Structure formats: structure tokens, C-alpha cells
What does this fold into?
Amino acid sequence: MKDQRHILQILEDCPSLQPPIDHLLELLPRLQARYYSIASSPKIHARSIHVCAALVRYKTRDGRPAEGVCTSWLEKMIPAETDQFKIPVFVRRNQKFRLPRRATVPIIMVGPGTGLAPFRGFIQHRAAIVREGRECGENLLFFGCRHENKDFLYEEELKEFESEGIIQLYTAFSRDTDKKVYVQNLMEQESLKIWELLESGAHIYVCGDAKRMARDVHKQLLEIVKDYGKMEQTEAETYVIGLENSFRYQKDVWS
It folds into this structure.
């Protein structure tokens, strides 16, 4: 475990270990399903579902190359005229991470990296509403990645939505500047805007890394509430809990 070896590598390193294959298969757990946020809206892509996932590749502590089980498998399945692939999938509804019922309600989206995935679907949905000539609330997107020229997912599409006035786009490219800037820093810069939208009934969504990003975004949200709501720490925490309880502050995070 310390060297991050899986069972096959352990058997390769210890040839004296020769467990019966039936015993080995009985002990191994079933491969678990991989869940990915849907990165498209049926209003624009009625006959397909889009997924946004990062390829996982790294070296273990003993220098062995390793890669993600599902992403590395999917990478090879690019359809062509001569090659068609069938992939077993199913859709799991997420009742706790969805757009407001009324399209006029403003939304604030915070999603660095592949945390952008569900927000692309949200934005496409609202873009379709705008293009139908219907009224739609403000849509703020805070997106971050390491390098603009390498990691800016759906760059052309997002900039097109921005030029149409469908979204207000705020970007942070943490490795392109001397001082690292993250999505929570962008939120700090737009504190007043965020507070005014929250007070007008906006919903705020956070998607991505749970260990650092979501924690730091939560802290920044508390600071915004404290500063512009003129509240003490406990009052700000109660305010944010109220947002969560009313499903106006929703998170889809992973570690």
C-alpha cells in the first residue's frame, strides 16, 4: 500500500506468491461504476450526452506508470467510420444539484477544471432560453485552471456565450502569473456583485475538488457575507446554512 501497488504488481514482485486464481477472484471487489457529470443540455444536444473528464496519468512511489481505469479506457474509444464502440452507461438523477425552477433566478457557478462539466449544461440550457426570446436571470461563471493555452476547457464556446451576453465569465490561470490566482480570489474581487445577487435570490453552485477548492470557496463566501452583510462570524455561518437548507447553495465535490 505504501508503494501504491495494485494486486497484479504485488504478484509480479513476489513470484513465490501463487494464490489459486479462483480464490483471488473471489476476494477481489467488483469494479465500481464511475460517475461523471453530464456536460451538455438536452435543449441543445437532444440525442447525445456529453462528458468532461480529465485523463489520469502519474507515476507511483516506486516509479511505475499508472493511469485512471475508466478515463484511459475511454480515451481509446474515439468513433470513426470503420470503428464504432458501445459503452455501457446509465443516467443517475441528481436531485440536489440542479437549476432553479424559474429561469429568471440568477445563478453563480464556481467550477475550476473538470468542475466546469455540469455548468456547461446549465449554460447551454439558459442559452437556449435566451435564444427563444424568453427572460433569463444573470449567469456568473468562475472558472480556473493552470494554463490558459493548455487547460481552458470549452474556451471558444464559453467566449461565444460571453459575447452573446449569456454569461459573465471570470477566469483564473494559476500558473500563468507570478502570483497564483484561484477562483476564490476572483470571487473576492467580485464580492459586491455576488452579495447583491445573493440578496436578490440567486443560487450558488460549486463543483470540483473537495479538499482545497470547495473549502476555500466556502471560506470566501463566508467573508463576503460577513463584509457586505455586516455580520459577525456566527451570523454569517447561519446565513450560509440558510442558503444550503433552501437549496440555494449546492455542491457537487469529490476528493
Summary: Strands lie at 57-59, 65-67, 107-110, 139-145, 168-173, 203-209, 249-254.
